[in-house]
Design a protein that fits this description.
By secondary structure, the chain is of the alpha/beta class. It has helices at 16-23, 42-61, 66-72, 81-84, 86-95, 104-120, 137-144, 160-170, 193-203, 261-264, 278-282, 299-316, 323-339, 359-364, 382-398, 463-469, 482-491, 495-509, and strands at residues 5-10, 32-38, 96-97, 123-128, 174-180, 187-188, 191-192, 212-220, 223-227, 236-238, 249-257, 268-270, 291-292, 379-380. Strands 1, 2, 3, 4, 5, 8, 9, 10, 11 and 12 form a 10-stranded mixed β-sheet that branches.
């Protein structure tokens, strides 16, 4: 019989890494089964638990429950999932745990799950990664701005040691640790965090039969393999190389238990082919208008605001060298009167939904759904609509997102340092014909870094559009309020990428 691996997923968030591994199938066999996934944030844990329930329900019945289809489509309130399938819900509650790693109760629960997994499966896999806020460049800048902040006292710097404690206890066949690139340069106590991490990982197995061989994932000639790293940057994985429509670069450390290292050295898989773009995954989504956060918010008022901004910008570029920009703004002004979107939310399925032969769209679009969920815009200040419009038009015309210096003075926000360079990327459009920039939790704040490429929509991305850029399938529902949903999406590992990690590990271990 094919091998089956039990998975321990730490710092799971809404479950992107686990979704990728658990979705893998080989000749009707699912080689990876999640035994326990751990997340402390309440809304992400709710999402994680619902997904665990749906996974188990589908394994039992072959389809998603009608109650979920209706809830997903907005046709019914959230049901009592235990009444839908008591055994599947009990399984989900046992799998998805709301625990704070690094505490005694979490250690007890995880150690109990480890004993169960070792008895149930052929071997195990550990996946996940500590919170990235302590390591990310943005997070470090914010932390330095806090009065009395002492890096050595920030517990987030040391949470990787809880991952290593579990690794030492579990002794899995392999592990996958994910984190931001900033981890390579973050320091604590005048030492690089990454150096401390590698020392701890290298020390595992001392005095035992087996240690862990640390590998980097390398992509060459359309194939991914596991190779020895010669420098820290070798551990950086570029998501776009795996067919993800996003330039998301993360540190991925793979450890293979030394008794399995020989086969792993020759493992390789074909990665998802071709560069994927923003338009590939959100280009067929229903068109929406943004809201107006202050003042009258209706389609007519919004259309007038955007039209006035387009006319103002066309006038600014009259007689200037950039004729293409002027004509583009004139075009938007005309089209706003003819075909501007009327609604802020839409759930209808695009034409040809779930019928594509494209690998990525087959992953995203799920048969049986009645609607697109969580495709609703937020409101923007009227003054920002002109900046969004300018960024989208500029991106379409010039093929790159404008910097602060590219904006006309009439659109300058009331920031004292607007032209100092500190706000150079304050407004960033996602280009339709390229992969997006990294989707981060900052998308929950104001949307300025995630402007939709279509000037006629003049808005930031919806939760569902961000989720598609992160390659979450359309039946993946994020629970909590909209801000919490954005945070969950931004903090996750793209499941389509994780699925290919799982495929590579299976080739290395099975």
């Amino acid at each position: 019989m094919p091998s089956t691996f039990g998975i321990v997923d730490l710092f799971a968030g809404p479950g992107g890494l686990g979704e990728g591994f658990s979705s893998l199938a080989r000749d009707g066999h699912a080689p990876f089964r999640i035994g326990i996934s751990v997340e402390k944030e309440a809304s992400a844990h709710r999402t994680l638990t619902l997904r665990a329930f749906l996974r188990e329900y589908r394994a039992r019945h072959g389809v998603l429950p009608k109650e979920f289809i209706d809830f997903h489509a907005g046709l019914a309130s959230e049901p009592d999932w235990s009444a839908v399938d008591a055994e599947a819900w009990q399984h989900a509650v046992g799998e998805a745990r709301a625990l704070e790693l690094g505490t005694g109760p979490a250690a007890t629960a995880i150690d109990g799950a480890i004993a169960t997994l070792k008895a149930k499966y052929d071997d195990t896999i550990l996946i996940g990664g500590p919170p990235c806020q302590a390591y990310s460049l943005v997070g470090r800048v914010r932390s330095r701005g806090k009065v009395g902040y002492v890096p050595e006292e920030d517990a987030r710097h040391y949470l990787f040691r809880e991952y290593i404690r579990v690794l030492d206890k579990l002794r899995p066949a392999a592990f996958v640790m994910e984190n931001v690139k900033g981890m390579l340069s973050s320091t604590v106590e005048s030492r690089l965090v990454f150096e401390m991490l590698m020392e701890d990982l290298s020390s595992l197995g001392t005095g035992r039969d087996h240690h862990y061989e640390l590998r980097a994932i390398r992509v060459e000639d359309g194939k991914a393999s596991l190779r020895e790293a010669t420098r820290p940057s070798d551990f950086i994985v570029r998501s776009e190389a795996f067919g993800v429509p996003q330039r998301r670069h993360r540190v991925i450390i793979v450890g293979i238990r030394s008794d399995l290292g020989t086969r792993a050295a020759y493992a390789e898989i074909a990665v998802s082919p071709g560069a994927r773009t923003v338009n590939d995954v959100i280009g067929n989504m229903p068109s929406l208008r943004s809201g107006i956060s202050r003042g009258l918010d209706d389609a007519k008022s919004w259309r007038c605001e955007v039209t006035d901004a387009a006319r103002l910008l066309a006038g600014i570029y009259k007689g200037k060298d950039d004729r293409a920009l002027r004509e583009a703004f004139r075009y938007v002004s005309r089209r706003m009167q003819e075909a501007s979107p009327e609604v802020r939310a839409a759930s209808w399925l695009p034409d040809g939904y779930a019928t594509s032969n494209d690998e990525l769209l087959q992953w995203l679009e799920r048969p049986g759904l009645r609607a697109i969920a969580q495709h609703e815009t937020r409101g923007h200040m009227a003054s920002d609509l002109g900046r969004y419009l300018f960024a989208a038009v500029f991106g379409n015309v010039h093929g790159y997102s404008p910097k602060a210096a590219d904006f006309p003075l009439a659109l300058s926000p009331d920031h004292r340092n607007w032209h100092s360079g500190a706000f150079n990327d304050r407004f960033r459009v996602q280009l339709a014909d390229e992969a997006s920039t990294t989707v981060t939790s900052h998308i929950s704040k104001d949307g300025h870094y995630f402007i939709h490429p279509d000037p006629l929509q003049c808005r930031s991305l919806t939760v569902r559009e961000a989720a598609r850029l992160q390659t979450f399938p359309d039946d993946y529902l994020f629970l909590g309020n909209r801000t919490q949903q954005y945070v969950q999406v931004g903090n996750a590992v793209p499941p389509f990428l994780a699925r290919q990690f799982g495929s590579l590990l299976y080739a290395a271990l099975a």
